[in-house]
Amino acid sequence: MTVATMADILDLIDRTHQQMMALIDDLSEEQIRVPYGKGINPPIWELGHSAYFYEYFLLRPLYGINPLMPGYDEVWDSFDIPHRERWSPGVVPEKAEVMGYYHRVLGEVIDRLSQNNDLSDEESYLGQYVVAHQQMHLESLIWCRQTLGYPAPSFATSSVHPLPEQEVNGDAVIPAGTYFIGVPPLEPGGKSLNFSFDNERPAFEMEIDTFSISKTLVSLGEFADFVEDGGYATPEWWSFGGNYWRRQTGREAPVYWEKRDGEWIVRRFDQAVPLDPDAPMLHLSFWEAEAFSQWAGRRLPTEFEWEIAARGPKALKFPWGNEPGKAPQVAMECCPPGTAPVTAYPEGISPFGCLQMIGTAWEWTTSQYLPYPGFCVDMYAYMSTLQFGDHKTTRGGSFATSVSLARNTYRQAVFPDRTDMFTGFRTCARSPK
Ligand SMILES: [Fe+2]
Q: Where does 156-218+279-433 sit in CATH, by number?
């Protein structure tokens, strides 16, 4: 989508709504009461919070609507409710009440947007903003399922994964030069014509030296070699932070890996399957990705190297071009999702020859999550400002990231010790080839 019209936004809202319902409706009463976990939220809270976001950032400021429910600001606003309290009985309303609120808000949003065929820049931008926020919560509902061993989403499908005609391996060499980073504003009405978050702006140019980056994500087979070589028991491969994490967690292998009768078994959602060496390595901390790179005699990319490798010399919006939806891997296309070979989907290849830069895994970079020079905060500080400084930046987008959200400039802030999200990595040569 280049220009977001009323029909575009209504369509986005509807698709996002259908997926959220699918993620909630197939959970039993017991499953929906999830145990406390640091990286997850109760699904009912995610539902109410998404609806509240529509109310707070769209209905109230644009259409002057008064708060719809007394006391809701304290329950659904992330700023106001500490994470642990989202599980407290009596704080978050029952499912039926939350569903009622959600449908009431969505109905109001659709009514208001439908009345105006010619959306103002502000309506178009805020419309995309609130639906993008709900899409982020779709992804967290999906990793919640992985965390708890629930089934993969019901809309995940199984399909054949095309492989390139010629074998893809080794590094792509990125020539030295000046490259574009970030999203340029467009005039007039720039924001609505090219939706982005505040942390992707303003754009700037960057000069870099030649570097080499792997054409493929690190696979389970490659990571298993590191594990089998005593990777977790060799402090030399780990940085100071990595060794601290290793001691704190006591990890001897990646989360969700288990050795049975001498074979590695990996859990994806509710299925524990023998390790497939061609599938992507997912669910690892920054420290594990860093240690693997050290062991392999390589290094992790910076977020700017990642972006340049994905965009190419013409600063594309997606690795495969400027139009979304061309890469089938941006979907829940394999069952369980995230298990297609790292060499699959040649049609999504980047201009420099890298595969699956969007649509399989978020990718760790060495970059601290920081504002670009000239950064201006948008209306929701939680999206970026509060996380600047102590997070790492991950790039790309996973199979659980919505198609309309993932793009080459999108930046995500993640604590380096997190293993629950759909994060993998690719590495760079220490010196260019
Ligand atoms: Fe949120």
A: 3.90.1580.10
Three-state SS at 37: coil
Our CA dihedral for 247, 252, 256, 258, rounded to 10 degrees, sits at -150
How many angstroms separate the alpha carbon of residue 308 from the centre of ligand 1?
29
298-299 and 423-424 beta bridge pairing = unpaired
Distance 137 CA to ligand 1 centre (A): 7
CA of residue 133 to ligand 1 center, whole Å: 6
Q: What is the mean pLDDT of each run of 10 residues along the chain (433 residues)?
A: 73 94 93 93 95 95 92 86 90 92 96 86 87 95 97 88 85 97 70 76 95 98 98 98 98 98 97 96 98 98 98 95 70 82 92 95 97 88 83 96 91 97 98 75
3-state helix, strand, coil in the chain (%, to 5): 35, 15, 50
CA–CA separation, 356 and 342 (whole Å): 7
> Distance between CA atoms of 24 and 100, rounded to whole angstroms?
14
Domains 6-148 and 156-218+279-433 equal at CATH topology level: no
| Ligand 1 centroid – CA 77 distance (Å) | 8
- Topology at the third CATH level for domain 6-148: Four Helix Bundle (Hemerythrin (Met), subunit A) (1.20.120)
Handedness of CA 27, 47, 336, 267 (dihedral sign): negative
Domain range summary for the chain, segments of one domain joined by + = 6-148, 156-218+279-433, 220-278
CA distances, 229 to each of 249, 424, 429 (Å): 20, 20, 20
pTM score: 0.95
